[in-house]
Write a structure and sequence with these properties.
Oligomer: single chain
Strand content: 15-25%
Structural class: alpha/beta
Low-confidence stretches: 18-28
């Protein structure tokens, strides 16, 4: 009898152990209250990232109830040092996935990428939010990328916060993504806190 049911029992145990492991991994995975993504050809060092997260800590809030105020700074690098076939395509796919369904609401990008995104045809849906909707002050024309009389990207090369994080980049723009799902209160809170981080990065430029 045992021989007959042996593989059936082993299969059930294996599934149960895998499920327990997956649940445990999810429970142990660090949760973040906001995410900022850099996409481009610059590579931020671990020291850069640590300083950015440290300098933005004062504006963070605990919105997910884990008693922590965590910001995640991630980068999607288009630096194909090994000339690997398909690398840029893979990074673009990753970036598009983050843009459409990820946790990032604030992006740091080059001028060329900002223009590409601003001019992307998404039908009636805006890929990014005009600064007039989330920033409480007017952007000087020389620091703005404008489409249809609206500012969609703000130049942050001279950001005191980024300079204090040892970030040196002559072509860096900040953009804010809209909330695609208006009924998702957790995402709405993440966007609100992310905008606070965006304002902190912009503060002091003008």
């Amino acid at each position: 009898m045992w021989y007959y049911y042996k593989w059936y029992v082993i299969g059930i145990l294996a599934v149960a152990l895998f499920a327990a492991f997956t649940i445990g991994q999810c429970a142990m995975r660090e949760k973040f209250d906001a995410t900022i993504t850099y996409a481009g050809d610059m590579v931020f060092s671990e020291n850069n990232i640590a300083k950015i997260e440290e300098n933005l800590a004062p504006v963070m809030e605990d919105i997910n109830g884990d008693d922590k105020q965590n910001l995640k700074f991630q980068q999607i690098n288009f630096v194909n040092a090994n000339n690997s076939a398909g690398y840029d395509s893979a990074m673009q796919t990753k970036l598009d996935a983050e843009l459409q369904a990820g946790d990032t609401f604030v992006y740091l990008v080059s001028k060329d990428m900002a223009n590409t995104w601003i001019n992307r045809d998404m039908g009636d849906m805006e890929v990014f939010s005009p600064a007039e909707e989330w920033l409480q002050k007017d952007v000087p024309p020389e620091l703005a990328i404008v489409r249809n009389d609206k500012t969609y990207a703000v130049k942050v090369t001279d950001s005191p916060l980024l300079k204090n994080s040892d970030v040196v980049h002559e072509d860096l723009y900040l953009m804010v993504r809209p909330l695609y799902d208006a009924d998702n209160t957790e995402k709405a809170e993440a966007r609100r806190v992310s905008i606070k981080a965006a304002e902190a990065i912009i503060n002091g430029i003008w």
